[in-house]
Fold this protein.
Amino acid sequence: MPLVLDLRSIDATMLATVGGKAANLGELARAGLPVPHGFCVTTDAYRTLSATDGLAGLEPAKARRRILEAEVPGELGEAIRAAYAGLGDDAAVAVRSSATAEDLPFASFAGQQDTYLNVVGADAVLDAVRRCWASLWTDRAVSYRETNGIDHGSVQLAVVVQQMVDSAVSGVLFTANPVTGKRDQAVIDASPGLGEAVVSGAVNPDHFVVDGQEIVERKLGDKRFLICSLAGGGTEKVDIGENPAPCLTDRQVRQLAALGAEVQAHYGSPQDTEWAIDARGVLHLTQSRPITTLFPVPEHAEGDFRVYFCFSLAQGLERPITPAGRAAIREIAGAAGRIIIGDPATNGCTEAGGRIFLDVTNVLRSRTGRAFFPRVLDVMEARSAHVLRSLYDDPRLALTNTSPWPAIRRVARLARRFHAPSTVLRALVTPEAAVRRARRTEARVLKAAEARSVEEALRDCVIPVLPTVAPTALVGFAMLGLAGRLVRTEPGELQTVLRSLPNNVTTEMDLDLWNLARTIRAERDAVDAFQEVNVQEVVARYRAGELPPVAQDGLRAFLGQWGHRAVAEIDLGLPRWSDDPTHIIGVVRNYLRLNDQQDRPDAVFARGAAEAEAMIERLARRARGRGRLVRFALRRTRLLAGLREYPKYLAITLFGSLRARIAERGTELHTQGRLDAAQDVFFLDFEEMRSTDGDLRRTVAVRKEEYEREMRRRHIPRVLLSDGTEPEAAVSAQTAPSAPGDLLGTAASAGEITGHARVVTDPVGAHLEPGEILVAPSTDPGWTPLFLTAGGLVMEMGGANSHGAVVAREYGIPAVVGVPDALMRIETGDVITVDGSAGVVRAHPEGA
């Protein structure tokens, strides 16, 4: 049981013994990189303290006090003193915490435990080690572990003691751009003195971005504060005034980028490093850990440039998709390649971070693709369309297919195969009959699926629905476009025609749910059964058949018709409403509180339909001689456009049927002892579900852990390049604001949010309402709990690699740092927009 280990004897396999920081430092030292010499007080040493027993059940303050008051065992104290003596007489050292849940690929724990700099003397080192142990139980560290789903009892703490570097200049180096995601850019923040000034955000540092050998961005900070070592131990913060000169030469910037490339090559993944250059100009590496905030890039051929569009996000899903859900989408995507493109080997669907991405590289290299695909996205996901158009000038996406004829031939082939011309004619001539014909597709799809395996049903019964049903809905939108050409319209007028469309299955479902609430409202005991207990109690009574008959029967009937639907329903692996009616019961409870007749869903729908009809007549009169044609076109729009929801509805209906079959297989696997629970089957793919032997529990456990980790990810790129770049962030970062009154800072965490500002100068006792934007002078780890509810972050000090920026990226909240006079120019309650990609804070006058 080693109590102390030399850093050079440590490697990455020793995480449980030395913690994340020490494991990384030992690995780097063994690789010959310039790591200051030192030793590690191991987790075995931490466990020798009797005070560490049962800490997980205590309040953090009590846990800290127990450790600080505990005696250090004699053998341990002597071991630490001997190791410290080996560094030299009264050597100045840095004493740094190294937890077993720290510097991990999915959670950096940046600054969550304590560090003590320029510690001199054996007694002072022992005291600093004890304080590091206690810092495992600070409020911020406990909160961070809970946020990342890490069990307190599973975490142990080691302590690193290293020779102190008397830094002339120091800072942070990211080997990939943490804001744009670009993997081949190094980002450096630097300031004179000790690196704590940069890491803590106490200073506005110099900021450099290096791409290859070229310094592509250079932004000099004022660097007015300096943290330096004191003779005899300790540090002090000194105000040295504004310092406009760069603290690094170009040669040093490139030297740092080269060192970062070495570290990244050693680990095989992008790294967040800390470094220091001493008075002699010698470069030292003081820390390295994985960058935890980069979105993973889909696998692709080395050197092959690709563009990926996030299908998950376009469908409204920020959450990851279960393994079964992704397996289903893979089958459907394969069928799309076979049926629509005509190439069975083509599958533009890929995965990253548990989300589905479509490879749209060839679409953007095609003139027809550029003309068509972004226009489709203009309707469903306009921001993605804007991002894709911004890539047109990228030389890597030069047009390679300028002829429209391949696309025309493909569309013609599909039209012939699925009888699209006759469907279009029927929709124009007899729209009511066309709608009835389309609505009969549901029964045909379910019947066809019965005779097929799950995979076959997904391949054969989803994609063919699109060219069978979609033309009817497209005629409706084509008629809308025709009307727009026949008559002059004002903004919003054509959109009014689309209000409260008939033949929309989603609207029908919503009105059915409202009618259920009206039925329940008519009987007092049914209302009481829904409102006088919490939602889960209502669910339990429904499952037990104990609700009043009008509620029990009404809810059963609704779920019989619509129970195959769900929130995030494109994920086959998620429960349907028939599996878990909690959401539906919650909506009914809200409906029961509606007293204003004008707010009732049926009244809102009726008003919308009346306004649409009135708009048709208004536009027809305005068109004069073309009025009859405008009226004809817009009435076809009203009858047909509501079918736009139907193809997806058919797929979801099929999912409900297939999910029931998969659940039966889950029950079989559970009965065989191969799964811990029947529902775990949705963490398997179809081949694994079919397997006849083997324990599947370990596979499920790993995937559940990955899924839960991705559930905590809050920033998902709309478009992602194969070099890791998020074009939306990269374009914003290059766009200078033009509006007067904008506050300029450093882009720190991508994304944009508008909300009320909350100016906080001291985190103790501070409170943020969910979604409020935290405006602070700077932040250290003590501010971390406030990040849990903050919608965004503005910091007056700090750089893109300071603690606040790192944590903001981990929590997925937009952040701008280094904003001069932010606390003077922003007041609590102001409505502001934080653009974390462009580094801009915009004020909204008078809360507009």
Q: What stands out?
A: The radius of gyration is 31 Å.
